[in-house]
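User: Can you help me understand a structure? I only have the sequence.
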Amino acid sequence: MADLGNLVQKAFYLGVGLAAYGVEKAEVGLQELKEKAQKLADEMVARGEMNAEEARKYVDDLIQQAQQNPKETPKSSEDKEPRLIEIISEDEEESKSSPTQDVDQLRQEVESLQEELRRLKRE
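Assistant: Let's start by predicting it. Here is the structure, written out as tokens:
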């Protein structure tokens, strides 16, 4: 009987220890995520892609999403099933055109766009 009580006590302590270890790992992971997000936000502020207020909101949103329980985030059935990929073949007319014809056509388009740009600059 004493051995059974001792075994239950050890199992309980093992469970508590594992739970504490999991919490510690989650906190470390969350802290690393916050540091990386802050570094990214600081780089974006330095490049002028966002201001300081937007950067703070960005980091807070990332941390909030990381703290949410995965069961709370809605998963659609599309996430669980493979995506269908549609293969579209080229039209016969397009496949018959030679690469030089394509280059000539692109040159003509570029020239017409350059002419339009010159005309708009004059106006």
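Now, to help you interpret it: The radius of gyration is 30 Å. Residues 2-71 form one domain. Let me know which part you'd like to focus on.
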